[in-house]
Structure formats: structure tokens, C-alpha cells
Amino acid sequence: MMALRLRAQHRGFHSRRPSRARDVARVGRVNPPAIRVVAIAAACILGLTAATFPADEVHWTITGQNSVTVDWRGGDAEVRYGTTQALDRRVEAVAPEPLPFSSRGPFREAKITGLDQNTLYYYSIGGGPLHTFRTPPPRGGSGFTFYVQGDIGGSLDWKHVAECQALIAEGRPDFVLCVGDLTYGNSVGQHAVDTHFNDVMRWSLDAAYMPAWGNHEWDKPRSDDLRNYKGRFDLPNPQSSPADRRYPYTGGGEDWYWFDYGNVRFVAYPDPWSGAWADWAQRAEEVMAEAEDDTAITFIVTFGHRPAFSSGEHEGEPELQGFLGTLRARNPKLVLNLNGHSHDYERTYPQGGVVHVTAGTGGSNLEEESGSGCPWRGGCPEPPWSAFRAMHHVAVRLHVENDRIEGTVYCGPAGGGGSNTNDIACAQGSVIDSFTIYPYGLKPGAPKPPSEEEEEAQAKKPAPGR
């Protein structure tokens, strides 16, 4: 039996080539403990049912202003919830579609609707320990915190995963954006999928898990595919990209999505299987234009796996640079892009008004260059657009107020010889970088920049005196 609790306080396009094998070359794997193997074998011999064991792999997503969805494996199929610990409401879970296949399950999904906004709810799976979730703040609200991480994996394969998830949990975020390459199940095995969703329970019992898909979720369909991920999440405002027939379960829904949280519109972008980015850029324009006209929205933030700018292992994608540049020209509220793919931390100066942050430091091994004395594939010193970078595991925290987004980057676990070589030294938990982003990317008091449409309209006006 299992339950969930969230804290009580309120916080107001890539080249088409396959991903490099180096993504997981430095695995440094740890074999599962013998006791785990014995426990699984004993369960099979005794024929124990799923309800015999506590629910695990528990996480929840924000699906709207008045709704959340809880996903888990095993345990009881009922969620009880309410605004007090009496838990006076209940909902029955169903099997998700598509059905994950990383293990026998059973996998369960419970959609909870009809909630009040900005309200703390207690809830419990099968009468187990209490945890809580909070619905989003009122539209236009602020004072909330989220973290971003990518390239995560599981603790049975990478020793730093557990420490990185613990750092995020200590920050008590409202939600976490996980920007792709979530488990590496296609490279190290299906055990990694289940391990990942148990590792993130350090915070996913208390904060919403909001994902984007990376190449390791789809580009080796003989080893893993998007069923393991689309089947574990109920995403808000889900969108379909064109399907790529070479890769099953691309297209068809939940390829990208968007959601509003307080005064921010968050817009995910898909990974670039054939046709996905061009389709996204066209349709995301409508989503952003709506936010541009919405007085409750102050900021637009995009997030996905591939970087538009990167001096790490995976260079920036010119196609994505172009799409984001065009979207920013038409929608000046777009001020921040969050991504992973390169296993490092890097922040740019504003590029066309948009700050780009690479946060590929969720726990899998860093991707440092060897033999040259410079750990960065993009070379040393850093390129002129790079404001700060660190070959080190970190935790990236974003706090949103009504007139700014504050970024704080905390030092994570240090690397060691042979892998995870660092280019900075820092005490775990100390701040290594901080930054502030203001509306329209401008400092307080500066006038709003004209949109592309406003510039065109101004150009068509006759000159004075004519």
C-alpha cells in the first residue's frame, strides 16, 4: 500500500544523425543487489499478487488548473484524496494507454478532476501513508519554484543519480521539468526504466513530474520505445507530431504539450524525428500567440531535449535556433529555453532575447572530452555566447515572481577518476551560478520591444508630413 504527499506551502531542432554511442559509453554500471534478485525470485515462486506489494514508481502530473493525474505500478488500484486527512473522495485507477512494458506491472493511472485551484490535497494509494499535491496557483499568480534536469538514468547504472534526485527533493519544488533521456532503457536494459521511476520518488511523491522526450526514449525501438513513457504520463494539452514509420509510437499523441502555471506558459518541443520540428514550430506559434495576448501570462518558457546552443558533447542545432529565433521575434514574452542532451551545465547570454540553459546533469555520467586538456568538445575558452558553463553535476532551480525568473544553480556530487571529470571544484550544495530574467528579457523600466507584426505595421505608416 502506498500514498502520496506534497508539501503544504504555496509557491504563488538537432541533425538527423543517430545519437552518439558516447551518450552511454562511460556507464560505470553497478549490478543490482543480490537481495533484489532473491526477492523477485521469491515473489514468482510464491505467486504473490501485485496488491501484496506497496505501489512504487509513483509520480503525478499537472493536467490542468483543476486536475492532476497519478501514475504508479502495483499496489491497490484506488486513490483516496481530500482537503483534509479524512480523505473523503476516491477514484479508481485504470490501465494506461499505451501500456508500459518495462516489467509485468500492473501499471495504473488515476485521473483526478474537479479540484479547486491553488489548493492542498492529501491523497493515498490503497490507504497507505499520506502525501499531498497542490493544484496550480491562480492564473497570473507567481511565487513558485521548479527544477529542470535531463539525461538522468537510474541508480543501478549511475551512482550519482540518487544524489542528484536528493538535491532536487531538498529544494521542495512545485514541479520538475525532466528534459529527455529519462532512463536509458534502450542502452542499459529495461531494468533502468523501473529503477528511474523509483529513484525520482525522492521528489515525485511531492512535486509534479513534467517530462519531454529525448532520443533515448525512441531511437532504438528494438530495445525501448515511447510506450514506456507515454504510458506513464497523462500530459496537459497533448499534441501529435507527424509519425516516423521507422520509429514506432512516434506521432499519435503526447509527442509534445503545453501548460500554464501561474504567470508562465510552458511549451515543450518534441525530439526531431522526421517532420517533428517543422510541424511543432508552426503549431507552437499559435500557442505562443495566444499567450502573447493573455494579460495573465508574463513569460513563455520552452523546454525539450536538444540544445539550440551548446559547446558540450552535442553541438547546438541550427534548425532549432532558427525556429526559436522566429518564434521569439513574433512573441517577445519568450525569454527562456531549457534543454539537456549534452551532459553538462551551460547558460548562454540572451540570444535574440532568449536565454538557453543546458541542464544535462540528472545523474548519468558527464560527457567530458579526454586527451586534449579541455573537457569541452566545443573547445576552450568558451564561445562568446556562453555566459557560464561547468562540467559538473548540478541542480538547476528556477523561482518565478511576478516580474522576474530567478535561476540558482547548486553544486552536485563531484566526479572521480576515469569518468565525470570536473572542470570546477565546489562544495556540494553551494551556489555556482545565478541569473535573473525579466519580462521580455529586459531590465525593469525598459520599454516592451515591438513584435514582428508591430514593426511591420509601423513600417507601413506614412512618414510625417506626407
UniProtKB/TrEMBL annotation:
<feature type="compositionally biased region" description="Basic residues">
    <location>
        <begin position="7"/>
        <end position="19"/>
    </location>
</feature>
<feature type="domain" description="Calcineurin-like phosphoesterase">
    <location>
        <begin position="145"/>
        <end position="345"/>
    </location>
</feature>
<dbReference type="Pfam" id="PF00149">
    <property type="entry name" value="Metallophos"/>
</dbReference>
<feature type="region of interest" description="Disordered">
    <location>
        <begin position="1"/>
        <end position="20"/>
    </location>
</feature>
<dbReference type="InterPro" id="IPR029052">
    <property type="entry name" value="Metallo-depent_PP-like"/>
</dbReference>
<dbReference type="InterPro" id="IPR004843">
    <property type="entry name" value="Calcineurin-like_PHP"/>
</dbReference>
<dbReference type="GO" id="GO:0003993">
    <property type="term" value="F:acid phosphatase activity"/>
</dbReference>
<dbReference type="InterPro" id="IPR039331">
    <property type="entry name" value="PAPs-like"/>
</dbReference>
<protein>
    <submittedName>
        <fullName>Metallophosphoesterase family protein</fullName>
    </submittedName>
</protein>
<feature type="region of interest" description="Disordered">
    <location>
        <begin position="442"/>
        <end position="466"/>
    </location>
</feature>
<dbReference type="InterPro" id="IPR008963">
    <property type="entry name" value="Purple_acid_Pase-like_N"/>
</dbReference>
<dbReference type="GO" id="GO:0046872">
    <property type="term" value="F:metal ion binding"/>
</dbReference>
<keyword id="KW-0732">Signal</keyword>
